[in-house]
Amino acid sequence: MRIGQGFDVHAFGDGDHVMLGGVRIAHDRGLLAHSDGDVVLHALCDAMLGALALGDIGLHFPPSDDRWKDSDSREFLRQCKAMLAERGWRLGNADVTIVCEAPRIAPHAEAMRATIASDLGVGVDAIGLKATTSEGLGFTGRGEGIAALATCLLLRDG
Ligand SMILES: Nc1ccn([C@@H]2O[C@H](COP(=O)(O)O)[C@@H](O)[C@H]2O)c(=O)n1
Ligand SMILES: C[C@@]1(CO)OP(=O)(O)OP(=O)(O)OC[C@H]1O
Q: Which residues of this UniProt protein bind a divalent metal cation (predicted)?
């Protein structure tokens, strides 16, 4: 078994939606990023890479590389899964926490779990996903951006 953790933040900017956990959520702000700014999938990728000490998302998908401009972060997630599989590992389970005052996450949580589970080839019951505000405190509390934390457990294949 191997354990990994990941954390990501993106700031709000102009826009009419955010991508979170591979799900498009209508919002009066967007997230500033080189890719689609999906903090949930970025934190999860970092957790999976971290579990095998393979560095982080920026190492494998550098923001300096135009290939990843406006990229769908589900592609990062699928590539991270492939990196694990090449080395004989698979996801046991993952757990994600999203920190923001808005948008409301609860109505979209099941869709995010299903999307992540599908991309990682695991059952939905292997993906935990929850949200919290930070009670008005800090950058998330001031509505300046969204943070996400992820933990995952990897199991040896076979
Ligand atoms: N952006 C968010 C934040 C929270 N929730 C849900 O509301 C519950 C209460 O949040 P607190 O910060 O007051 O603990 C929380 O358990 C989430 O289910 C949400 O959907 N979206
Ligand atoms: C995802 C990448 C892709 O270029 O860029 P961003 O979308 O800016 O996101 P970040 O969380 O800063 O991770 C770095 C990069 O890998």
A: 8, 10, 42
